[in-house]
Specification:
The chain is α+β, with helices and mostly antiparallel strands. The protein has 26 helices and 24 strands. The strands form 8 sheets. A 5-stranded mixed beta sheet has the order 1-3-2-4-5, with helices on both faces. It has a 4-stranded mixed beta sheet with strand order 22-21-23-24, with helices on both faces. Strand 23 and strand 24 (681-682) form a beta hairpin. Helix 20 (498-515) runs antiparallel to helix 21 (518-535). The longest helix is centred in the middle third of the chain and has 19 residues, at 407-425. Mean pLDDT is 93; it is low at 1-20.
Length: 697
């Protein structure tokens, strides 16, 4: 018996020793906190983190620099790692001829922006993984995205040979490319520019709308990104202009996205994009920033349409975030990986989410046939390798009529199906979670939760938003009053970027409007003052992406084009506009107006890249209302007001005397009064929301 016990103890020790990686085999990424960098810590490549000392090393050794940028949930990043960065031949070449640097684009968006701009100039396109070869001083000379092992080795060999024989060729090219990179950040001031008229704005918005896919929604083509800010703009303008054609396109898009495989029909939450036009096969990674913005979008869409399926999307997506992406400290994690281990033990994209027909039959038994009709376990829902991605192609009302089953029974059956499949999925190998907490994306998530609370009055949504906001205050505010960008394992690091300030200020303003806790308004104002001191360009009236305290890169970028996330400058311009009303600040208002004028010439060229700017222009062109509510029942009045979709307003309020410009001398003991103001003129106070709404166009 003792021999048997000894044998098993020895076996456990051997297994554990095999599973533990030898730290002596690691590279210079081993002490990083980024999950993405740690994924590469045991590659045979001598990786280094981004640090100017490694560029100094490259200069000293006269070696070219490889800068490889990605993120932890990126499928093709994993593929290239397995094919090239774990290959001894490729690693040997990289180690001998180059200094190699790995960058987490989510930790260092400043570095990513510079080299993404470079690759787009060189090749006309970009993406991740992003791989660049640069001179020892960091200036790029070659780049692209994914490369197979042979492509990678051949390219590096040729580049190395040319640099050895004719370095001036690359130096001359780097000089030219550097000028091109810097030109992208040039903002021409347009103080003399006349304001964009409502007619011009409607034309730009129409140009966005005509690009919507009339069959499947979203913007035509594949891959298909959700672009929530563009759809949100169309929702707003369609509703305010009573434009049924635009609203139909918006609702088509929202319904088709919610029907698609891009939406996790079992666990809730959206993947990053669809690889096809019908939203069926997603790129399976789930990003916090997508889900945060979609929560806001579907909440407002429900407020306008009362479509119950939109409410379900909001609740299921928030539950997914709270269960899968929430840290015990209240912060939210960044993403969930696209890849996980399949049943055969291989890393495979989407393995956690896909189903075979045989597995579904085994799990659902007599319910399988109806389930298969509902979620298209057929040619419409087929993916590859005998696997299916669940997708709907009709509404519950249509399904109810077709199969002669009540809508209530469908809901009951769906809940049973989901519980069965969630249990089964829980036994699979789970995708990795990138558990770093980014200030910018957490700001977006706070905003989403507050928007959901505004529409549905669900206290747990507001509680989650408050918890995250308190986490930022306690953990991500620096001693000088600025923000940290990233937090992981109890440590905050990396000086905040403009995206952090813009998103957090936006979130805190939204929190204030829905709670009247003046702490959030004051903190937003403090962060705005800090942003002026450290990011503002007095020559252009725009904000740099990086602080003046940061190390200099090739170019100090100015992010102003809206994309999957609105640009940091467009969010900041909207924040300034709101703060100018709260504090009656001409400085804030004039900066916001100048920023709009600076980008106005570019909207006509590419309206899709300026949707958040157009949201601000709508507020400037039309009546924008300041609604001040003062008295003991202020919150109740705000909740009643929020039953109406009113994007062209701010709310300010207090329970007693208050010195804010819009609240001063407005408290009447024993009463709760509502003041509707526009263009620095206030109507007579009223006592009911019904009366107040009559004063709003």
């Amino acid at each position: 018996m003792k021999k048997v016990i000894f044998f098993f103890l020895l076996l456990i020790i051997i297994i554990n020793s095999c599973n533990e990686k030898d730290s002596s085999m690691s590279n210079n990424l081993i002490n990083e906190t980024s999950p993405y960098l740690l994924q590469h810590a045991y590659n045979p490549v001598n990786w280094n983190p981004w640090n100017k000392k490694y560029l100094e090393q490259a200069k000293k050794e006269n070696k070219l620099v490889i800068i490889s940028i990605g993120y932890s949930s990126c499928h093709w990043c994993h593929v290239m790692e397995r094919e090239s960065f774990e290959d001894s031949l490729a690693a040997s070449l990289m180690n001998e001829k180059f200094i190699s640097i790995k960058v987490d684009r989510e930790e260092r968006p400043d570095v990513d922006q510079v080299y993404m701009n470079a690759v787009q100039l060189m090749t006309g396109s970009g993406g991740w993984p992003l791989n660049i070869v640069a001179l020892p001083d960091g200036r790029p000379i070659w780049g692209g995205t994914y490369f197979s092992k042979d492509q990678w080795i051949n390219a590096l060999t040729q580049i190395s040979n040319i640099y050895t024989k004719e370095p001036e060729r690359f130096i001359n090219y780097a000089n030219t490319l550097e000028k091109g990179i810097k030109s992208l950040d040039v903002i021409n001031t347009n103080e003399d520019k006349t304001e964009i008229s409502s007619e011009e704005l409607e034309k730009y918005i129409e140009n966005i709308a005509i690009k919507i896919d009339k069959n499947h929604g979203g913007f035509s083509g594949a891959p298909k990104f959700m672009m929530p800010n563009n759809i949100h703009l169309l929702l707003r303008t369609g509703h305010q202009n009573n434009d049924k054609a635009i609203l139909d396109l918006v609702n088509l898009t929202l319904e088709k996205m919610a029907y698609g495989g891009i939406y996790d029909q079992i666990g809730g939450g959206f993947s990053r994009y669809s690889t096809d036009e019908k939203w069926h096969i997603p790129h399976f990674e789930k990003m916090l920033y997508d889900n945060a913005q979609l929560i806001s979008l579907y909440s407002d869409a429900h407020l306008i349409t009362k479509n119950e399926s939109y409410k379900n999307v909001v609740y299921e997506t928030i539950n997914f975030v709270l269960q899968e992406l929430t840290d015990s400290n209240g912060g939210f994690y960044s993403s969930i990986d696209a890849d996980s281990k399949s049943l055969d033990g291989e890393e495979k994209e989407g393995a956690y989410y896909i189903w075979s027909e045989s597995e579904l039959k085994s799990l659902l038994k007599d319910e399988f046939k109806l389930f298969a009709d509902y979620y298209n376990i057929n040619k419409y829902g087929y993916w590859e390798d005998e696997n299916y991605v669940l997708i709907k192609n009709r509404s519950d009302v249509e399904f109810s009529k077709e199969f002669n089953i009540s809508k209530e029974d469908i809901i009951k059956k769906k809940n049973i199906w989901k519980s069965i499949l969630i249990r089964a999925r829980g036994k699979r190998a789970r995708p990795n979670i990138d558990d770093k907490i980014l200030a910018s994306w957490n700001g977006l998530m706070i905003n989403g939760l507050v928007d959901a609370y505004r529409v549905f009055e669900e206290e747990k949504f507001l509680n989650a938003a408050n918890s995250c906001a308190e986490f930022i205050l306690e953990n991500m505010i620096k001693s000088d009053g600025g923000l940290y960008h990233s937090h992981k394992d109890g440590t905050s690091k990396i000086n905040g970027y403009l995206e952090d300030y813009s998103a957090v200020i936006q979130a805190f303003l939204n929190l204030y409007e829905n709670t009247l806790n003046e702490k959030w308004l004051n903190t937003a104002d403090d962060l705005m003052k800090y942003t002026y001191d450290n990011f503002y360009n007095t020559e252009t009236n725009m904000f740099f992406f990086t602080s003046k305290l940061d190390d200099k890169l090739i170019s100090r970028t100015v992010e102003f084009r809206d994309n999957v996330i609105p640009s940091s400058n467009s969010i900041m311009a909207n924040n300034l506009f709101k703060l100018s009303h709260y504090y009656d600040s001409s400085k804030y208002l004039n900066t916001s107006l100048s920023m709009v004028k600076n980008i106005s010439d570019q909207i006509e060229v590419y309206p899709n890249g300026f949707s958040n700017w157009m949201n601000l222009i709508l507020n400037l062109n039309k009546n924008f209302y300041e609604i001040a509510i003062v008295g003991d029942n202020a919150i109740e009045k705000i909740n009643e007001l929020n039953k109406n979709y009113l994007p062209n307003k701010i709310v300010v309020g207090s329970f007693g005397d208050n010195s804010l410009p819009l609240l001063k001398n407005r408290y009447i003991e024993g009463e709760t009064m509502i003041y509707v103001c526009v263009k620095k003129a206030c109507k007579m106070p009223v006592k009911t929301i019904k009366e107040a709404l009559k004063l709003i166009d």
